[in-house]
């Protein structure tokens, strides 16, 4: 099937769409024909992503929106405004919003632990719940929800007790969502990227980056628009719940 016909008429919500992986997801989905809602806590970044999206196909309408995924109220407003704008909930949702607040376990502040869990784990829960509730309420026959975990959630990483715990939680959340939502035709999958060059990894000291690189067979970090995006597109178009968890 031609790439440009695969996602036509799919309305896609991408949280964290203002930067890095989320931005690359927005750009790829738009180029595949989807209408994209770029949602981010930073209005400026969301608008910047929106300005970079292709929209040549008939019926393609993109929208930028501000959301804080750790706030139920903020997500409710977002879903309502999407439904007002498009007369339907998003049938594809990619949860790419995420943060790090790295510190060694011995000195990690409680509020830094809580904030990372609130954005990465609770945020994925709240968005998944709000989007699936909207899909079920309108009687949609199918939907696809993707969460972004991390290899760190499987193997741990120095200085990232909070982040590793949040990403391990995202996997458990997604497995359970997949089991509960399959009867509504909603597929749920979690991708676990390795290390990808984005503003998030820009914060990691050079010394640590070169250590990480040495663990990667290719000897370099991944790119946001690389294989990861191909996997995300496949998850929305080709795979069924029963054959695909991301790992
Ligand atoms: N870069 C990597 O190596 C890597 C590896 C594995 C997983 N991930 C995950 O991929 C996702 C995207 O990361 P990235 O590397 O593109 O980072 P990034 O910092 O470039 O992008 C994250 C985006 O999330 C937004 N955001 C932060 N808090 C938010 C909130 N409360 N509500 C809404 N938006 C919020 C930010 O404004 C930013 O635009 C994250 O979940 C991250 O944990 C990244």
UniProtKB/TrEMBL annotation:
Provide one Gene Ontology cellular component: mitochondrial matrix
* Source organism, top-level taxon: Eukaryota
E.C. code? 1.1.1.239, 1.1.1.62, 1.1.1.n12
Q: Provide any one GO MF term from the record.
A: testosterone dehydrogenase (NAD+) activity
Top-level EC class as recorded in UniProt: oxidoreductase
Q: Which SMART domains match?
A: PKS_KR
What name does UniProt use for this protein?
Answer: (3R)-3-hydroxyacyl-CoA dehydrogenase
Question: Subunit arrangement?
Answer: Heterotetramer with CBR4; contains two molecules of HSD17B8 and CBR4.
Q: Which BP terms from GO are recorded?
A: estrogen metabolic process; fatty acid biosynthetic process
* Upper lineage: Eukaryota, Metazoa, Chordata, Craniata, Vertebrata
- Indicate where this protein resides in the cell: Mitochondrion matrix
